[in-house]
């Protein structure tokens, strides 16, 4: 972290980052300026849709990063690198690599495999250099492997959304008019269908390797560089798998359903691998912060159940859900403030020892008093499992058939919360999950309906 702007200005990496960002913006304007001028309406729609899409991803990544949140300016730097530096240079790098492939292989090979070779090779290296730049800008902010995952995800997200916008412009250009239909179709395909296992995931994996190399100084250089290169290789392999024409014969014979099946299998392999690794990365960070809290043996600071509730976004959410059912949004906010204070105390104790404890104790005491005022003594994540919760969860998927079924999960939610409050008991959190899923499915149904309308009129 820089203590002031003047200190930042004396750091060469800052000016190097600024210069590369400006150059990237200029390259993109030169490349896509004419397309934007020809279809300004489509460009605006693409920016709006993929900005909203990116905001959802930012929320998810921030939830992963909740225990030890990173500075927002570094997130912005990561987004800028991915969106402007990496994407702009990838345009030229992909063109150069394709010219090499044309010279050393056949045209049919280039037609089938160029995307699977060019994209992973150029783009993953360029995005990973962005994670290295984050290390150069703020080395002290890399405190766990999960930090590398988060910064890598932001670099990948910036690249992903700019690429989505450029693909939208290309689709409009292919249509030949300033039509909004190709933009909506691109959003459905690249945003909704492929967005969960795209560049955000690839770069998050590469970021884990960079963070490992930075943190584990007790290991040999061979080990650290090997892990970093291995993570980059895994990111490359994921990207290659997604871009490759694997199972092309199945898609040719089975038509649209075959294509969707192959895409789903590829995507789930990529996403499943990432989620397994993410579980261990999050567990490692949680254990590093739970230790200081457990060592205090002070339930006023944090009970055992409250420490367990800090483990992940689901357990934190369940503790807040219990508070909401008990005392409404006021209690929800108080428990959230307590969790934030406990996490901040744990981070400061890990980094600064007793001085960190003393600095954060007043914040925690205020949060604890606030929770006590609403009648909550132990902000735990314990929850019941009910038949109503499972029924509501199943009914949420009926919204994919017809959005009118949205009223069923919402009705179960209202009934479950009212019943729990009247009996002073806990409510099944699946009621909340089902209602959220139903709203998401209703939105997806609406977007697909708009896409069909814009396509077929």
From TrEMBL:
Name of the protein described by the UniProt record: PrsW family intramembrane metalloprotease
A Pfam family reported for this protein in Swiss-Prot or TrEMBL: PrsW-protease
Keywords linked to the UniProt accession: Membrane, Transmembrane, Transmembrane helix
Organism (species): Asanoa iriomotensis
Residue intervals passing through the bilayer: 12-32, 39-61, 73-91, 192-215, 221-242, 254-281, 390-418, 430-451
InterPro entries reported for this sequence: PrsW
């Amino acid at each position: 972290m820089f203590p002031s702007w003047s200190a930042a200005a004396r750091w060469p990496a800052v000016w190097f980052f600024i210069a590369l960002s400006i150059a990237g913006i200029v390259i993109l304007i030169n490349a896509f300026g004419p397309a934007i001028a020809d279809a300004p309406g489509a460009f605006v729609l693409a920016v709006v849709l993929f900005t909203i899409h990116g905001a959802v991803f930012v929320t998810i990544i921030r939830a992963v990063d909740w225990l030890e949140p990173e500075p927002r300016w570094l997130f912005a730097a990561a987004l800028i690198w991915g969106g402007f530096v990496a994407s702009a240079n990838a345009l030229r790098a992909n063109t150069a690599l394709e010219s090499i492939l044309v010279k050393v292989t056949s045209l049919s090979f280039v037609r089938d495999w160029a995307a699977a070779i060019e994209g992973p090779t150029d783009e993953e290296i360029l995005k990973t250099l962005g994670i290295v730049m984050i290390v150069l800008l703020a080395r002290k902010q890399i405190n766990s492997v999960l930090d590398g995952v988060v910064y890598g995800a932001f670099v990948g997200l910036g690249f992903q959304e700019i690429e989505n916008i450029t693909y939208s412009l290309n689709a409009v250009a292919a249509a030949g008019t300033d039509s909004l239909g190709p933009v909506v179709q691109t959003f459905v395909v690249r945003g909704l269908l492929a967005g969960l296992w795209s560049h955000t995931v690839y770069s998050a994996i590469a970021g884990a390797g960079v963070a490992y190399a930075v943190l584990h100084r007790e290991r040999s250089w061979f080990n650290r560089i090997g892990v970093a290169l291995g993570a980059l290789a895994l990111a490359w392999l994921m990207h290659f798998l997604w871009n490759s024409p694997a199972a092309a014969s199945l898609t040719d014979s089975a038509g649209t359903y075959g294509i969707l099946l192959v895409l789903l299998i590829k995507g789930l392999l990529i996403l499943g691998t990432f989620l397994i690794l993410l579980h261990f990365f999050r567990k490692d960070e949680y254990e590093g912060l739970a230790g200081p809290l457990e060592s205090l043996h002070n339930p006023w600071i944090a009970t055992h159940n409250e420490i367990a509730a800090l483990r992940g976004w689901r357990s934190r959410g369940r503790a807040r859900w219990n508070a909401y059912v008990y005392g409404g949004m006021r209690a929800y906010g108080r428990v959230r403030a307590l969790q934030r204070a406990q996490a901040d105390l744990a981070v400061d104790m890990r980094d600064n020892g007793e001085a960190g404890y003393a600095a954060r104790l007043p914040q925690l005491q205020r949060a604890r008093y606030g929770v006590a005022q609403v009648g909550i003594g132990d902000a735990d994540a314990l929850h019941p499992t009910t038949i109503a919760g499972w029924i509501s969860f199943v009914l949420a998927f009926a919204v994919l058939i017809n959005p009118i079924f949205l009223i069923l999960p919402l009705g179960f939610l209202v009934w479950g919360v009212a019943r729990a409050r009247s009996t002073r008991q806990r409510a099944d959190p699946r009621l909340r999950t089902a209602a959220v899923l139903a709203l998401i499915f209703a939105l997806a149904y609406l977007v697909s309906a708009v896409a069909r309308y814009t396509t077929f009129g």
